[in-house]
Design brief:
Length: 456
């Protein structure tokens, strides 16, 4: 059942609590406010009702037998990461509230719950879910250039998750703009005035990555001449972007998981843990689900990070965006150089739109810069576009071509070494004379050419 603002029907609220008295009380409160109410007494029953009743919002207790509120929250958002969930607890602690928000809860209320506060939070999060959670003072992803439906859908998903602390996982090929999307989510969130810090987990040596993330005490290891707070602490109050998370060593994955569970970090060489308030956005160009199956990535960490998955399409999947991107970066180049804007000829444009773009947007920017730099006229011809893009793509040969080239170069080296003596060359190559002559013919090589070189 959909929300009041779309078709006049009442919003449906699912209440989950193993205390029947609480269910009766909350149901009475919400029905008096014209909500449609469904109640269940366990997390298992709640998951069954979500697919049947299709609620617009869930209110759940934290402490329940069998499946507690945290486990229920994780399962709900594995199925529908945008379904609002309000968490309640009579034994609430600050770490519980922090963990719940990072797992995607919309609000965390302490029992006994105030009636006005509960209804206010329900109305607030129904409104946000219906309109997309976004910062209205600034367009979302202002620097993201697109017109394709695939990117429009991605941007809407990014808007919806921005206004909170829910953990986001971004997947996409190299050069698609994963960090740009992460920064757009940060800039549209309540944390926008706090630090956004990115770290490439694959670019830092394993022995230094732990210290870089969690910090270290003075003297913790050789070369630790002073205390270092680490990136988690530096990003406190803001967002930490863990790029190429799939390259993180297994030993460090265990320590990262502990941080995400407790929201505390222990610097290397310290006996004390430090509380942190950081939103986590992670990204990778690899298939983490496959890495989990192969034992290269921990399943528990994968599920902790993959609360809301966002997948960026590669450039070849969004060809309608290519012309727009080319125009945008040509204009940026002209402004940067203080010269008239150049343009691609129709033939060059058709060629670029039809290209495979293995390096995605990052490769497109390089191609624009190269063409605009080398071309002396205002119209960039097809030949220049082919030179900028075609040469890059031809650098990587097929396996068959690579084998053929290697074989030819090997035969030339052997013939040079033996001064064109076929018998000696065949022995070095491990072939008989007949096989060796066939190889020479296949590569159009004449042994006498190398005898002539020797006598020259």
């Amino acid at each position: 059942m959909t929300k009041t603002k779309t078709n006049g029907q009442a919003s449906r609220i699912l209440i989950v609590d193993d205390d029947s008295d609480v269910l009766v009380l909350f149901s009475k409160w919400l029905k008096a406010e014209n909500f449609d109410v469904v109640t269940v007494e366990s997390g298992k029953d709640a998951l069954a009702q979500i697919s049947i009743a299709r609620p617009d919002l869930v209110v759940t207790d934290l402490i329940m037998d069998e499946m507690d509120g945290m486990a229920l929250l994780s399962e709900i958002h594995r199925q529908n990461p945008l379904l609002p969930v309000i968490m309640l607890s009579g034994q609430a602690k600050i770490p519980d509230a922090v963990k719940a928000t990072h797992l995607g809860s919309s609000a965390f209320l302490t029992k006994p719950v105030d009636k006005k506060e509960l209804i206010s939070q329900i109305r607030k999060h129904l409104h946000l879910a219906g309109n997309g959670k976004t910062n209205k003072s600034q367009p979302f992803g202002e620097g993201i250039i697109y017109r394709s439906s695939k990117m429009a859908e991605l941007i809407e998903q990014g808007k919806a998750v921005a206004d909170g602390d829910i953990t986001v996982f971004i997947s996409g090929e190299t050069g698609t703009g994963k960090e740009i999307l992460a920064k757009a989510i940060h800039d549209a969130s309540p944390r926008k005035d706090q630090p956004f810090i990115g770290v490439n987990c694959g670019a830092i040596p394993e022995q230094l990555l732990e210290s870089e993330l969690f910090g270290h005490e003075k003297g913790a290891f050789t070369g630790a001449l002073s205390q270092h707070e680490g990136l988690f602490k530096a990003a406190d109050g803001g967002t930490l972007f863990l790029d190429e998370i799939g390259d993180m060593p297994l030993d460090l994955q265990v320590k990262l998981l502990r941080v995400l569970q407790d929201f505390q970090v222990r610097p290397v060489g310290s006996v004390r843990s430090v509380p942190i308030n950081v939103r986590i956005i992670s990204a990778t160009h690899t298939n983490l689900a496959e890495a989990v199956k192969e034992g290269h990535f921990r399943a528990d960490l994968y599920y902790r990070l993959n609360v809301v998955p966002l997948a960026i399409p590669n450039l070849a999947e969004r060809p309608e965006d290519i012309e727009l991107l080319l125009e945008y970066y040509l204009e940026k180049f002209a402004l940067r150089k203080g010269e008239p804007k150049k343009a691609f000829s129709p033939e060059a444009l058709d060629y670029l739109i039809a290209s495979s773009w293995p390096g995605n947007v990052r490769q497109l920017i390089n191609v624009v810069d190269l063409c605009a730099t080398l071309n002396k006229t205002n119209i960039i011809p097809l030949s220049m576009a082919q030179k900028a893009l075609g040469d890059e793509e031809s650098d990587l040969r097929t396996l068959k071509d690579a084998k053929h080239l290697f074989e030819r170069e090997y035969l030339i080296s052997v013939l040079q070494l033996t001064k064109g003596q076929v018998a000696n060359s065949a022995r070095i190559a491990g072939r008989n004379r007949t096989e060796f002559y066939k190889l020479l013919n296949a590569h159009n090589l004449d042994p006498s050419d190398f005898r002539d070189q020797a006598g020259a």
